[in-house]
Amino acid sequence: MIHIIFDMDGVLLDSEPMHQQVIYEVFLHKNIPLDRAYIQTLTGMSAFPMWQKIKHDAQRVEAVEELVQFHKDYFFQKLPELHVAPVPHVKEVLALFKSEGKHLSLASSSGRKLIEIFTEQVGIKHYFEVIMSGDDVKYSKPNPEIFLKVAEWYALPPAQFTVIEDSTNGVKAAKSAGMHCIGFQNPLSGGQNLQEADRIIHSMNELLTR
């Protein structure tokens, strides 16, 4: 396990409840009759494909671009009051892996600006050699594109990478990429099915005692 790719929301940061709450509030503003259980199925998706799905499922007439922009504007309006905490023990894991000479990267469906803000806010940005965002890919998880782009950046075969993911979509993407996958069963990420992962952990502390 030399090259390790971390997802951000739900793996590095306990931010999934915050994202889900913002989406729920957008639904209320837009009178979209979908519930919180539905929102959990969107975990791991980037903005455009997520709103394509919502538009289809809720039979909305607005353009996807309009829905994406409304969500983005609402989120950044609320940003000053949004603060996220690192997942317990994840800073220790990052420090340990770095001290062991492992190559760490971040691949998140979130936009690059948001990744920059939150990784700097919790003081972990410097651990990562490469950061891939939802802005860098055409297809969202469960499509493997974002993980394959990390492998391309290193010019290495996908089989040399281990991905740490907390979502059903993320695990599917990692396995479709041909990578080893550790599923992190974060209770704050909702009822995510991680059964396709090669290993499932329930605390980042398990990576310190391997």
Automatic annotation (TrEMBL):
Domain of life: Bacteria
Record InterPro entries: HAD-like_sf (IPR036412), HAD-SF_hydro_IA (IPR006439), HAD_2 (IPR041492), HAD_sf (IPR023214), PGP-like_dom2 (IPR023198)
Protein name per Swiss-Prot or TrEMBL: Haloacid dehalogenase
Organism: Capnocytophaga leadbetteri
